[in-house]
Design brief:
heterodimer; A: mainly alpha; two-stranded antiparallel ribbon; globular; B: 101 residues; mainly alpha; 3 helices; 77% helix
């Protein structure tokens, strides 16, 4: 019998086992993803010769589209027959769930398209990348649908374990393995904290099933239950690690920088979508009665993430590291919707998640093609003069960056507006004000990259001459792979050398922008020709930019979709 | 002789704390893995104790889920350590500092 049946059995002594009814439509996208991953894995060991990277990509794209279509059927089912709970109460089948399934399926599709070009360029054989990504996506889908803390945990682990391997995927790069190990150690640590949180919550409420917990909390007045509060705190710490909110963000810059670029985009979009989905369902929906206990903590996490994410990103010279801090900043914005803990806040968070998914995966698609073989060359100075060499690519990246900055007529603007409005509606004025200031600060580092792309390749050692003396000498050519050690040390020194003029800066925005964008033009960079953009990557970038611009100008459909995607127990 | 279940909960807290401090303090990656395992087993002990206190078999079933996940996690973790050890011949977390910023 299934273990979930055991969970459902009220009395352990009954000899006959009760098999729960399973509504297969409710878990269809998940099953398609897992089935596709398993089929591809088996096929790859049987037909190693035929199954090239390209075939794997097409199969993955087909599986993602199938999951997307299944998601649309689910949406139709819910809008006609209403939401329900299935699989012995372990799975919630509601609009919220379907929204997450659709977001994850689209993220998987885009990542498959980007990964194709990357794997070919790096010479990685076989479809394992796609198998792991699909497994990870199924975990995120499970987190969106989970209606039981232990199912949340299973989804979290399916998502994470596959991501650990994906982070280490490019075994030719030393950074990749290091990123994987850091992600693994902190991920496992946070999972253990999360499980202990589940254990304490179970002890305090007598169940791990979310509606049963909510029911228990609404029927019993708990003045001060230390076990429950401890459980809540540990659950929040576990979620905090997964969404990279500020006191728990230490892993994310290293992991984002070290992981292969397509994986980083996938990680940022899918892991955030899954973790925020579970966070919203567990806290906003289930622990609604204990709101006064957890809201202040979320408030603190949101403010720290907004401030630290935006300010530390200003100092980054590596684009992937900058995107890591920017993603921490975005997590702070999504937390605004969580903190509001209203129907509007949930809808705003969902809208932010889908918007951010397209923006971040599109951005990492550009970062992937801009990197040199070996996944190096992620300095912001490497983007200098891109607009002259490849105007279309520069324009696409500029749109994606402006979208993240929240410029009007992109989806990013309305996403930020919605979460701030949701916070403001619950009288969280301080939070809303800090969010708006941090958006202004964040706009600066997005624009810095955009300005670098559109500024011409200047003469070597013009403005930042003095600052470069250390950097120019210390920096050898970017050798991929093992040379990373030496290159990195030189990089550190270069960073120190370049850091000094900014700290001496008087604070005049124009001059500081000049110093920052006039980072040392490396010889190899100035001589760099146009980068090759595979056709499938163009498709992914086009989809991301198209979504950002079209639904930025006509926000109605997606906004309505997010507002209709309500939780089963709001 | 019966033992008050509170002692098992206290043992769980102690094991969990030792594990958590171990992850944060120890620098050998393998020892850090062991400390994570200690934390997971502290959670398992807590699950079983609460299941016994609540007369609910659900909590004991959860332990199997956690055990399976922990096993899968260790397989992946050791794989990553072996991959790094082949390149660097070190399993010390402090030696892994390629990235800074």
């Amino acid at each position: 019998m299934s273990p979930l049946g055991l969970l459902a059995a009220s009395s352990p002594a009954t000899p006959t086992t009760h098999v729960p009814h399973v509504d297969y439509l409710s878990i269809l996208p998940m099953l398609i993803m897992i089935g596709g991953a398993l089929a591809l894995m088996v096929a790859s060991s049987l037909f190693r010769k035929i199954l090239t990277v390209g075939v794997g990509t097409w199969i993955t794209a087909a599986v993602s589209v199938a999951a997307l279509v299944a998601g649309l059927f689910q949406w139709d089912q819910i809008s006609t027959h209403g939401a329900q709970v299935t699989v012995a109460g372990a799975i919630a089948f509601d609009g919220f769930d379907v929204f997450i399934q659709i977001v994850v399926a689209m993220a998987m599709l885009l990542t498959a398209l980007i990964g194709d070009g990357y794997l070919r360029r790096e010479g990685v054989e076989g479809p394992e990348f796609h198998v792991l990504a699909m497994m990870s996506a199924s975990g995120a889908m499970m987190m969106g649908a989970a209606n039981d803390l232990i199912v949340v945990f299973l989804g979290l682990e399916i998502l994470s374990i596959a991501l650990y391997v994906l982070a280490a995927f490019n075994h030719k790069r030393a950074e990749s393995g290091e990123a994987a190990l850091k992600y693994f150690v902190l991920g496992a640590f946070s999972s253990a904290v999360f499980v202990y949180g589940i254990a304490l919550t179970y002890g305090a409420t007598g169940s791990t099933n979310l509606p049963q917990i909510a029911d228990y909390l609404s029927r019993n007045v708990i003045a001060s239950n230390g076990v429950l509060l401890g459980g809540l705190a540990l659950l929040l710490v576990g979620f905090g690690f997964k969404i990279a909110a500020v006191p728990f963000h230490m892993w994310s810059p290293d992991v984002y920088q070290g992981s292969p670029s397509p994986v980083t985009g996938f990680m940022a979009a899918v892991a955030k979508a899954g973790a925020f989905a579970a966070l919203l369902r567990v806290f906003v929906s289930t622990f609604a009665t204990a709101r006064t206990d957890w809201q202040p903590i979320i408030w603190g996490l949101a403010i720290l993430s907004l401030v630290v994410g935006a300010t530390v990103a200003l100092m980054q010279r590596d684009v992937k590291r900058m995107m890591a801090y920017s993603s921490i900043n975005h997590a702070g914005f999504i937390l605004l919707g969580v903190e509001a803990a209203t129907t509007r806040g949930v809808a705003a968070s969902l809208y932010y998640i889908i918007t951010y998914m397209f923006l971040v995966i599109g951005s990492f698609a550009v970062i992937t093609v801009m990197s040199r073989p070996g996944d190096t060359g992620h300095q912001i100075s490497d983007y200098r003069g891109l607009a002259r060499r490849q105007p279309l690519l520069a324009l696409a990246f500029a749109v994606l960056l402006l979208g993240q900055a929240g410029v009007p007529f992109t989806t990013g603007f309305l996403a930020k507006f919605e979460v701030v409005a949701a916070a403001e509606a619950t009288r969280a004025y301080v939070l809303a004000a800090i969010a708006m200031v941090s958006a202004a600060v964040a706009a600066f580092f997005y624009l810095r990259v955009a300005v670098t792309m559109f500024s011409p390749v200047g003469p070597v050692g013009d403005v930042a001459d003095g600052a470069d003396s250390a950097a120019g000498v210390g920096r050898p050519d970017d050798t991929p792979g093992d040379g990373g050690w030496a290159g990195d040390r030189a990089d550190d020194r270069a960073g120190d050398g370049r850091g000094s003029p900014t700290s001496r800066d008087t604070g005049d925005p124009v001059s500081s922008l000049r110093v920052l964008t006039d980072a040392p033009p490396l010889d190899s960079v100035t001589e760099r020709g146009p980068v090759a953009v595979p056709r499938l990557t163009w498709l992914a970038i086009g989809l991301s930019v198209g979504f950002t611009v079209v639904f930025g100008i006509i926000p109605g459909p997606i906004l309505d979709f997010a507002h209709q995607a309500t939780l089963l127990f709001p | 002789m019966t033992i008050n279940p509170d002692w098992y909960l206290a043992l769980g807290v102690v094991l969990f704390s030792i594990g958590a401090i171990g992850v944060l303090v120890r620098r050998n990656v393998l020892v850090m893995f062991m400390c994570v395992e200690l934390m997971l087993n502290a959670a398992n002990l807590t699950f079983v104790t609460f299941a016994r206190m609540l007369h609910d078999i659900g909590g004991q079933v959860l332990v199997f889920f956690v055990l399976v996940v922990a096993a899968a996690e260790v397989v992946v973790g050791l794989g990553i350590v072996v991959a790094i050890f082949r390149r660097r011949s070190t399993a010390n977390a402090d030696d892994l500092h390629l990235m800074k910023g």
